[in-house]
# Entry
Amino acid sequence: MQLFAVIQVYLPDIYQLFNRVKTLILRMLKQTLLKATEAAAAILKENFNRPFTISNKEGINNLVTEIDHASEKAIIEIIKNDYPDHYILSEEAGEIIQDSVYKWIIDPIDGTINYANSIPMCCVSIGVEVDGKMEIGAVYNPFINELFFAQRGFGATLNDQIIQVSAKTQVATSCLATGFPYTYLDMPNGPLEVFGRLIKSGVPVRRLGSAAIDLCYVAAGRFDGFYEHKLQAWDSAAGFLIVEEAGGKVTDLSGDYYNPYKPGIVATNGKIHEELLRWIHDEI
# Structure
């Protein structure tokens, strides 16, 4: 009983110490995150519109370039130098498994087809999970010098300026974004069905070719909503946190809690979220 009383007395100090340690750790993680993001982005920019090797993964147009590998190598080297015991999940290298609560989720080039065709709508995307929860993320398009960043509980920024989602309240007056998988999904309310439903009703839907950028554009209020049927964790890890920290809402296609390790995503300003879900499920 006496021990319990002592613990109660010192509990506020323990919490304060814990929060200070957590803040320090996240500050250090952010430094490594930004260093890795910028190093990879420099590689993208240096090799843009130059000859390089391109090969196919699964599907005829699921490309990977030698620049993807070079970008990824630079990112992983920086992370390993600072945190050799951290878990890494990257699009090309796969999983570097470690017994750690820290997990780096990397897309060395999101928008590889754009990059391979000299279209400057592509980016580096890196998110960091701590104990299963996304805590920080960065998305950087070096061709237009836009660096999006978010830390859980601290908001989202574009080039260090606070960003917020839009205020649109109806899908009919919204500007949306989507993407299509490299292999056709034969399913009810699939990508083409939803796309057709929206454009037949006059709703503008853009397809930029980079889910990470789409998500950041929702966060910045450029798009009012984004949906896609099939993504990988590295496509959305940083972007979905940036949307949430900008005041938006992110769920799966059913409207449930978003899990980046499952394929479907709906990200909006929050105000059109439920209506967009109804459009997706043909309930309008």
In short: DSSP finds seven helices and 15 strands in the chain.
